Amino acid sequence: MAKNGAAGNTAKEIEAPALTFEQAMENLETIVAKLESGDVPLETAIELFQEGMSLSKLCGQKLEQVERRIEMLVEGDAGLQRKPFAGTKEEA
Question: Does the record bear Amino-acid biosynthesis in its keywords (predicted)?
Answer without folding.
Answer: no
